[in-house]
Sequence to fold (291 residues):
Amino acid sequence: MNKNIHREITPLSQDDSFLVFDRVKKHFDFPIHFHPEYELNFIWNGKGVRRVVGDSMEEIENIELVLVGPNLEHGWETYNCKSNKIYEITIQFHNDLFDEKLLSRRIFKSIKEMLQRSNRGILFSQKISKDLKTRIMALSKIDSMDYFMELLSILQDLATSRNQRQLSTYSSSINDVFENSDRIKMVYDFIHQNFERKITLAEISELVNMSPGTFNRFIKKRTGRTFIEYTNETRISYASRWLIESNMNVSEISYKCGFNNIANFNRIFKKIKKCTPSEFKEKFEGIKKVL
Fold:
């Protein structure tokens, strides 16, 4: 796996269904990454931005809408964009939100086929992107079941739209080595369920029946990170979510994320996010909603 590609740990828990990230930005600074969730990304006023999906790299038009399948590396870069007011709305949902039994029903045929094609990334036409603009920009203002129904309706409209184009010449299976490991899944679930407390290397090594040294080599090979780095990235992912969504202060979030002192939390947060927690909270413009 390319060491420059970042395996993103999204803040979606197993009990969540969707993440809606609605913001206005001046530039893109998140590295090329992949994750097991589906991602629908809408950009408006972004002419000149460069999109990277798999081995596809293109400068985009003013408006675009892309669906990226699980574990396909992707990202957007400022590149030649001159706008200082780029609208970006990102919707992420679990790869098992629509299970096989549901997708096997005739009424879901178009959506099922679209989700399968998204393993190489799908760029939708300018026409459907413009037609759906108002509805997509309203998504972050909708709650609960109404949101689910509207997202389902949007996915159906996309699935039946014309002039879709697959972007990458290869599929997301290149990164499936991360997901297709029962031990990695066990580690992933355990860290997400216990990150609020101290997790020792000995404890998690015993969970997967390995010695501490063997386990550290195993997780480094699979994720590109040591156990401590991987655990801290999970904690900072949740911290970022709480900084935006909750009324908790930095100190409260620090302890809730499993850090035993705020100085250590600030140091690790800045190392991962390239800014302090306070700066992150202050500079963030937009809405983040998890349903």
In short: The radius of gyration is 19 Å. The mean pLDDT is 87.
